[in-house]
Amino acid sequence: MDKISWLENAYAFLDEEGEWFHDSSRESLYYKPRTGEYLRTSSVVAPILESLLIARGTPDRPLTNLRITGLTFAYATWLQPNTARGFPDMQSTYQYGDDGYGGEKIPSSVAFWFTDSLVLDHNAFTALGGNGPALEEGCRNSRISWNRISDISGDGLHIGNITANPVDPRERVVGNIIDNNSITQIGSEYHGASAIFLGYVAETRVLHNEIGDVPYTGISLGWGWGRSSGMKGNEVAFNNIHHHMRTLMDGGGIYTLGAQPGTRIHHNYVHDQANEYGALYPDEGSSYIRWDSNVVKSAKRWFFMSNGNMLNDTILGNYTDTRASVIIGENCRVENNTVVGDGFWPSEALEIIAQAGLEAPSPGISSIPDEEKGTTSILGRERPKSKAEPWKTFRNWVEPRSARNLLGKTMKR
């Protein structure tokens, strides 16, 4: 092995509470219980299905005006890592191909192709062994809002793909809204995952989402280093992104790639980033993007633009409590960014902080308790929740409107 590797499922590794080993030759499962946990009274679930809901339109006949609401999607798996191929991770759940580049990604157990005016709202997605919900090729004018997404092995949400300039322009992912979703504890197995990944998308709005406890990037927008990919007119605003980059490096709270004319990233609150590099991180080719009115708190670098192939960006009117930044670009405008000291934030910054994250629930929608309750799953390494870790609490959450569930086929003991 000449690269960083991850090995698992050996009896010799069974040395900490909450770990398990599956001996397929003996059809036996070994588990080391946590303190106070008794298997005689526990529910143990082993997912079998990799897909829970797959909906496909076509370019000529897209699925229109479909709404999915009030469901719980849980206990799906993804078994490729059990094969000889394993999981050659590249970035944001894309894998290295035989040619050394990426293309194939971790699949989503809930995925849509060629939709128009799809609404996916007030659902719960949890204990999923692949990616969270995905809008694939041809999804337009759709909305994903007020969903609760947690304990996902890969990306929390996956929007679009990494094919620039498709031959059929109807394959483009355009005009979608991602708003008011609570996303936590994603990337539980595949740490290169993002809470929200957006590939080659256009006119897409990512608003008022709450993202926390993430091993890598919070919101990843764009792909490739080119300047004619069709990405344009995107908006990332009023998101609360915190306690991210907890496992890996070279990411950020909001990370971009490629030229995106007319894209604006504003009024986000990004704080408590664990590792490098920048809380706001325009990477290779990120050009024609406006970064304004954001608040960055408790990060090693508030802004990280480290390459001269980024052009005509605007960095204006942001607030931070750290002076550390790297801004290297061509013809970029950098003005009126404020560094605060001793925690004395200007009223404008406090207003941005107050507005970030989930909006107030709609009338008639109830809230769940602040404390999230844990489960025991034999597939996936759940991280126990702690009252001492306040980022595990999400404000103004709304529960699904009914008790209907859509679960993968399970084995229980």
Distance between the termini: 38 Å
CA gyration radius, whole angstroms: 21 Å
CATH-scheme architecture of the largest domain: 3 Solenoid
Give the total of beta strands: 42
For this structure, what is the CATH class of the largest domain?
Answer: Mainly Beta
Overall domain count: 2
Label the structural class. mainly beta
Into which percentage range does the β-strand content fall?
35-45%
CATH domain topology of the largest domain:
Pectate Lyase C-like
For this entry, what is the oligomeric state of its chains?
single chain
The helical percent reads under 10%
Low-pLDDT windows of residues:
362-413
Query: What spatial order of strands do you see in the largest sheet?
Result: 40-37-34-31-28-25-21-17-14-7-41
Mean pLDDT: 86
How many DSSP helices? 1
- Shape type: globular
Largest sheet: 11 strands, parallel
Describe this structure in words.
With 413 residues, the protein is mostly beta strands. The chain has 2 domains: 1-44, no CATH class; 52-368, 3 Solenoid (Pectate Lyase C-like), CATH 2.160.20. Helix content is 2%, strand content 37%. It contains 1 helix and 42 strands. The strands form 8 sheets. An 11-stranded parallel sheet has the order 40-37-34-31-28-25-21-17-14-7-41, with helices on one face. A 10-stranded parallel sheet has the order 4-11-15-18-22-26-29-32-35-38, with no helix packed on it. Strands 6-13-16-20-24-27-30-33-36-39 form a 10-stranded parallel sheet, with no helix packed on it. The longest helix has 9 residues, at 347-355. It is globular. The chain starts with 19 loop residues before the first strand and ends with a strand. 45% of the residues are buried.
